[in-house]
Amino acid sequence: MDMLVGTNDDGSDFTVKASDLLTHGVILGRTGSGKTGATVTTVENAVMSGASAIILDPKGDLTNLALVFPDLAAEDFAPWSEEGSDSEKIAEKAQKELGHLAPNVRVWKDAADVTIYAPGKTHGGGKPINVLASFGAPTGTFNDQSLRDRASAVVSSVLSAVGHGADPLTDPANVFMTDVMVNSWKNGKGFPMEEWATTLTDPPAEFQVIDGLPINDFFPKKDRLKIARAVVGFRRQATKWLDGEALSIESYIGINKPKVSVFTMRHLNEGERKFFAAMLLSAIVDYMFRAPASNKLKLLVVLDEARGYLPPYPLNPPTKKPICTLLAQARAHGIGILIGTQNPNDLDYKALTNVGTWFLGKLRERDCARDLKRELSVRNVDRDILSTVPQQHFLVLKKDGTHSLAKIRWAYSYLRGPLSGQELLRLEDSVQTSFKPVQTSVKPVKPSYKASSAAAQVFEGSGDVRINFVLTDRKSGGSTVVVEHSINGGDSWRSSRIKNKSKSYGSTPFGQRHTVVWNTIKDVGRKNVTALVRLKINGQISQHYSVFKVNNTRISRFSSLFS
Fold first, then answer.
1. 52 and 65 Cβ atoms separated by less than 8 Å
2. Which segments of 210-366 does DSSP mark as H helices, in order?
3. Which of 157, 419, 450, 483: CA 20 to 30 A from 221?
């Protein structure tokens, strides 16, 4: 499938094949070059071609993928525009720039569900992620080296997070803890963090000698105690990494339609960002080894602002190894990577040897040192062009060896800048069911609702699940709402028994909130099950569903709250 990147100088369409992203892509450009726009439009194109997207977003710019207003109306832009700005002019600008592409905004909105995650958050919106749940043995086919690489990435992430950032190839702490983790995994067991301190202070019998060296010579006890104390302190302060759903790549990839999962890290410090990024990238590597082979782009992994994540030799942060593994092997499994940064010298070009598609915005002469110069020379491109590239234009080096200066098309998403924690909270609260007029009635285009992480918690209560949702329609009106649940992973769905069911649920231009109460005892009995819940509005089924646990086995009454 051809993806519409933008236009050539003569106004003709400039396209790139979606399958070209299987050999990965790089977006380079100084501040103000339009790099964020190029990244967003590439994600939109890939998703509309059928791929899901997992996005690591250090600055928070890519949360804008959740701001999509198909009607391009001023009142839609107004709540999200900068204070004092003119929403009418913003809407007019979008309509003008999009032109005949305006209908694609709705195509993009309907193409995928966008979920914003905020790992390690302590306040504000964005779904939390539990990254310290188990460190369980990975599934899939691993040889000894790939299993060790996987374990080393996890260990490096944690050691870096506790302030021990030595080279994993030679650092005794990393070598020892990686050996222990690999041994646990081979025995079918996990290596949870609560066992780390004990392992460090009292090493297992089989690790009293490391390749002929006594453990105290290879990794002295005082050094082990120092790291053990740091790990204990980290766990005491790491409750923010324990909230929310477990890190699971399968849950971020659509089955019937693509998903877009944006992991905003704007609220984290640099060390915390690299810790989470390494954990997520390692989980993607784990997923890659169990994913079937494919020559079609099924998942696009995006790393925006990659400075420090894939640095040149000799720097070796915990993010580097999983990125290099994905660059080398992910293509065969339908996974592509898109990496963006301001300065080409931030990247290890040896790792990017096989990248097929390059987007080059305005760069200075010194930005083109060494490796980028060679890349341009091989393609017979005059590097002086890069110093004069206009804003929102990129010199695109395609996989087939051709190149062209293209103006990147206007994004279908509203690029208003990073969303704050409170704005993310407002975004969750205002998740709306969109409607369009059909004669005198209204018809939902894409029903949806959201559930908070409280859905996975068990409370003492009446056995009821309260589900809140918001309906919005400019002309107001009533809609039928049916709640459905599945306890077999979505293979089959049943209507849920609602205590306070209404024949019609109203809507307003600003959104009307409703609550329905589902009796889990009636529908699932006194069982412990994982359930999916979705809504059917005016007969149309939402593709968005929420996962939560129902445990009616040990208490007489159960309640869980969606919000």
1. no
2. 215-218, 221-237, 270-290, 320-329
3. 157
Using alpha carbons, select from 414, 413, 428 the residue that is nearest to residue 82. Answer: 414
Residues forming CATH 2.60.40 domain(s) in the chain: 431-561
Length of the chain: 563
| SS3 call for 261 | strand
Q: Report how far residue 20's alpha carbon sits from residue 356's, in angstroms, rounded to the nearest whole number.
A: 7
* CATH 2.60.40 given to domain 431-561: yes
pLDDT beyond 70 at 447: no
- CB 193, CB 235: distance < 8 Å: yes
* Separate counts of helices (H) and strands (E) for the chain: 14, 28
Q: Does residue 216 contact residue 251 with C-beta atoms inside 8 Å?
A: no
Q: What is the mean pLDDT of the chain?
A: 83
Backbone angles phi, psi at 198, to 5 degrees: -65, -40
- Angle formed by the axes of helices 320-329 and 270-290, nearest 10°: 30
Question: In whole angstroms, how far apart are CA 557 and each of 452, 454, 463, 497, 528?
Answer: 21, 17, 5, 16, 13
Helix (H, G, I), strand (E, B) or coil at 293: coil
Q: 31 or 208: which carries more pLDDT confidence?
A: 208
Q: Which CATH number fits domain 24-128+246-299+309-374: 3.40.50.300, 3.40.50.10610, 3.40.50.2300, 2.60.40.2470?
A: 3.40.50.300
Q: Which residue has the higher pLDDT, 239 or 389?
A: 389
Q: Of 401, 381, 402, which Cα lies nearest the Cα of 8?
A: 402
Question: Structure pTM?
Answer: 0.71
Domain with CATH 3.40.50.300 in the chain: 24-128+246-299+309-374
Asked if 511 contacts 430 with a C-beta cutoff of 8 angstroms, the reply is yes
Greater model confidence, 473 or 158: 158
Half-sphere exposure for 55 (CA within 13 Å, toward CB): 35
Q: Using CA atoms in the order 361, 362, 364, 367, what is the torsion angle rounded to 10 degrees?
A: -20
Q: Identify the helix (H) or strand (E) that includes residue 435.
A: strand 432-438
